[in-house]
Amino acid sequence: MMMIAPYGTYMHGGALLVNAKSYHASGMENLKFYGWGPEDTERYERWTNLGYRIGYAKGCLFHLSHPRDLNGTHNSSQQKMYSHYLKDTAILSSKEDIRNQMNL
Asked: InterPro entries, from UniProt (predicted)?
């Protein structure tokens, strides 16, 4: 049985290896996210806009199915909208905008 990847060719997340100095300089994680959301895509877009080089390992990334706990979902539709707002803001932000937003 073949599965179609819902995230397209390049998944943003799942496994992450970073240079510690660059990670700190980028603002690390966006702590405005709560529960499950597009934080991996937000991080990818933010780091791309900051000019960091991002590479991908060759091969497949498999996600093991697991039940979601209380922190694995949105508490409300407003929270879900806010998570997507944060992601979209990173996509549309310039390097200068990101530095101001993240206090870098």
From this structure: Galactosyl_T_C, Nucleotide-diphossugar_trans
Per the CB < 8 A criterion, the answer to whether 14 and 62 are in contact is no
Q: Assess contact for 12 and 43: CB atoms under 8 A.
A: yes
Q: How many CA atoms lie within 13 A of 78 on its CB side?
A: 0
Backbone angles phi, psi at 82, to 5 degrees: -65, -40
Average pLDDT of the residues in 35-45 = 84
Give 14: exposed, middle or buried? Use CB within 10 Å, 0-12, 13-18, 19+.
exposed
Which amino acid type is present at position 28? M
- Give the residue from 18, 38, 20, 19 showing the smallest Cα distance to 30: 38
Q: Which amino acid is at 33?
A: F
**The token pair that represents 74 in the structure block:** 């949105």
CA distance 94 to 87: 13
**pLDDT-derived band at 3, boundaries 50, 70, 90:** very low
Q: What is the domain partition of the chain in residue ranges?
A: 21-51+70-101
